[in-house]
Amino acid sequence: MEILKDISALRLWRQAQTKVGFVPTMGALHAGHLSLVEEAKIHSEQVLVSIFVNPTQFDQVADLEKYPNTLDADLKKLKTAGVDAVFLPDFDQLYPDDYRYQISENDFSMALCGAHRPGHFDGVLTVVMKLLQLSEANQAYFGEKDYQQLRLIRGMVKAFFLNVDIIACPIVREADGLAMSSRNLRLTQEQRAIAPQLYQIIRSGHSIERMQRAIEKAGFELDYLTTQGDRLLVAASLGEIRLIDNVPYDNLVSLNKNNKHTKVKQA
Ligand code: AMP
């Protein structure tokens, strides 16, 4: 596995490759990230992963400072997974303009997570644009866990005619249903015990109002619980840790229309 520490190393590596599948990450890798790598191995000839904790997408300095860094373990996992190359840029490499130039979307990015995290999606879209340009990826893999992000990236690729296929990968969960996230490492034992309830509640098939009450009763501070297309999306915090999750909504809609508060079989 090649370790590419700067842009010239990445460009040199890229010249020798054919069909590159790219998985951008912020590190602290778990099985969710590795599922993207597995998908990339199926559809692409070479797999490139980037690890870069992108400061421009953090609206809270404390959140950035506390973001877990497990680089050695991450590299071992990627090597075992059969990744071809890992790109490890630093801020100065990726932002020679010091973030004077930005990609922003002025509609959907303002809603949901964007409403609670000002500037977050500008940072995400800008760094993803930079990484897609540099990697010249044929395919790029993103998790449905970050559903709003996925939608916005698809929109950006379309708006700017980027020559890359965006491939969505399903949410990978812990055995108790909690969506895997690097931030889960920061939950206290007590919070970790509460956290899986978020998924259990949003897949319950109950009315939105009833789910809202259940989320708050469980001890979360609810940011939003809302439908978006065929998805039910939620963001809620336990202390300073903000969790997001989503489930397909079609089943839930038909259940609610019939006014039945039956459980949904499987999200
Ligand atoms: P992050 O390191 O949090 O920026 O995530 C990097 C990529 O992994 C993004 O495309 C995420 O949507 C994806 N990802 C994170 N957690 C999961 C998960 N539990 N299941 C599937 N994909 C995930």
According to CATH, the homologous superfamily of the largest domain is HUPs
Give the averaged pLDDT, no decimals.
94
Under CATH at level 1, the class of the largest domain stands as Alpha Beta
From the 3D coordinates, which CATH architecture of the largest domain would you assign? 3-Layer(aba) Sandwich
Rounded to the nearest angstrom, the distance between the terminal CA atoms is 36 Å
Spatial order of the strands forming the largest sheet: 1-4-3-2-5-6
Helix content: 25-40%
- How big is the Rg? 19 Å
The sequence of SSEs as H and E is EHEHEHHEHHHEHEHHHEEEH
Heteromolecules bound: adenosine monophosphate
Q: Mind summarizing the main beta sheet?
A: 6 strands, parallel
Strands, total number = 9
Briefly note the structural class of the backbone. alpha/beta
Provide the low-confidence segments as ranges.
258-267
Task: Count every helix, treating DSSP H or I runs of 4 or more residues as helices.
Answer: 12
Taken as a percent bin, the fraction of beta residues is: 15-25%
Task: Describe the protein's architecture and organization.
The chain has 267 residues and is an alpha/beta fold. The protein folds into two domains: 2-169, 3-Layer(aba) Sandwich (Rossmann fold), CATH 3.40.50.620; 182-255, Pantoate-beta-alanine ligase, C-terminal domain (Pantoate--beta-alanine Ligase, Chain: A,domain 2, 2-Layer Sandwich). Helices cover 39% and strands 19% of the residues. The protein is built from twelve helices and nine strands. The protein has helices spanning 7-15, 31-43, 61-65, 71-80, 91-94, 113-116, 120-135, 147-159, 189-194, 197-202, 208-217, 250-257, and strands at residues 2-4, 20-25, 46-51, 85-87, 139-143, 165-169, 221-228, 231-238, 241-248. The strands form two sheets. A six-stranded parallel β-sheet has the order 1-4-3-2-5-6, with helices on both faces. The chain has a three-stranded antiparallel β-sheet with strand order 7-8-9. Helix 7 packs across helix 8. The protein is globular, with a radius of gyration of 19 Å. Mean pLDDT is 94; it is low at 258-267. Adenosine monophosphate binds at residues 25-26, 32-33, 35-36, 142-143, 145-146, 169, 171-172, 179-182.
